[in-house]
Specification:
By secondary structure, this protein is an alpha/beta fold. It folds into two domains: 3-191, Rossmann fold, CATH 3.40.50; 222-318, no CATH class. The chain contains 13 helices and eleven strands. The chain is elongated. The structure holds iron/sulfur cluster.
């Protein structure tokens, strides 16, 4: 049976593309690429793969993705999303996998004219050129609007059974989902945080302070973030689960109320007594009791101090 490698985003379009190809007796191995800014595979993804009988795997491209995020050749989208470079990176990774799996082509759920990126003239051929995958990227949802690919020309894929969907309307996809028996419609895309302006503000801060690492970007998903000096940043847990996650970090300094009626504050970077004081004040500010003893712990030493000053103005000033 001919084999194809699919890019799986977790959204409806990539699932429909996979099912359209599978319907033509093609074995599909789907890959979710982990950029560090989207979702990892969830139980629902595994359930869908099992229900529709395709193999689904995860590939960690976080390191490579950070490099393109720092300096995207084709620039950013509306926010800090380097979509063109990101797609090219994913296709290059898929190409390596295609060879490893002896697959014949790559499948994506891209729809012509659906996103600002794909509305740009010649963008699909630019991707083929950059990845040296000319004729080997099949976009089943828009294929009839695009030049025939190699699997179509070879008769491995019947072009008549592909689609001519374009633009932002979701109606054809919803109808197709019904046809395939997809009961719960997944969201259109994989929820990339780089399209969220408030999240991008925190990413920019890491950029500006030369702190853009995988570990630091993972931490952007939790807590309240404060830049309290050029050399020091703090994160405040918003609930028990975030407090626990922060306490697992094996570097930096932690502050928390001795009665645990308040947040864990994680302080990273270089700090002096001044930064500790600001962190303690922010810890008090978000605690249930204002007159509380704060524990300061750096993994080796631990001491307790009373910080009853609430520097509300400082809190506002430092918030990212
Ligand atoms: S939205 Fe995010 S994951 Fe999607 S193509 Fe753009 S950068 Fe990549």
């Amino acid at each position: 049976m001919p084999k194809a490698v699919a890019l799986y985003s977790g959204g409806l379009d990539s699932l429909l593309a996979i099912l359209t190809v599978k319907e033509q007796n093609i074995e599909v191995v789907a890959f979710k690429f982990l950029t560090g800014f989207g979702n990892a595979l969830k139980q629902e993804d595994e359930d869908l793969a099992r229900k529709f009988s395709f193999e689904l795997k995860e590939v960690d491209i976080r390191e490579k993705f950070l490099e393109i995020l720092k300096n995207p050749r084709y620039g950013y989208g509306k926010n800090l999303n380097p979509c063109i470079d990101c797609k090219i990176l994913m296709l290059k990774e898929a190409k390596t996998i295609m060879h490893q799996y002896n697959a014949e082509f790559i499948v994506t759920g891209e729809v012509s004219g659906q996103r600002p990126m794909s509305q740009k003239k010649g963008i699909f051929s630019l991707m083929e050129k950059e990845t040296l995958l000319k004729g080997l990227i099949l976009r089943p949802l828009s294929a009839k609007l695009l030049p025939p690919t190699i699997p179509e020309l070879k008769g491995v894929i019947d072009r008549n059974l592909l689609y001519d969907i374009s633009g932002r309307t979701r109606n054809p996809q919803i109808a197709l989902a019904k046809k395939f028996g997809i009961e719960k419609i997944p969201q259109p895309a994989g929820g990339c945080l780089l399209t969220d302006p408030s999240f991008c503000k925190k990413v920019r801060d890491l950029f500006e302070h030369d702190e853009l690492t995988i570990e630091n970007t993972e931490l952007l998903r939790i807590g309240r973030h404060f830049r309290i000096s050029d050399r020091c940043k703090i994160i405040v847990g918003r609930n028990e689960s975030e407090n626990e996650t922060l306490l697992k970090i094996n570097k930096g300094v932690f502050l928390f109320p001795s009665d645990f009626k308040g947040p864990v504050v994680f302080l990273s970077g270089t700090y002096s007594e001044r930064e500790i004081q600001v962190a303690a004040s922010i810890c008090v500010y978000y605690s249930k009791r204002k007159n509380t003893e704060i524990v300061i712990k750096n993994g080796i030493t631990e001491n307790k101090k009373n910080y009853d000053a609430i520097l509300e103005q400082e809190v506002v000033k430092y918030r990212l």
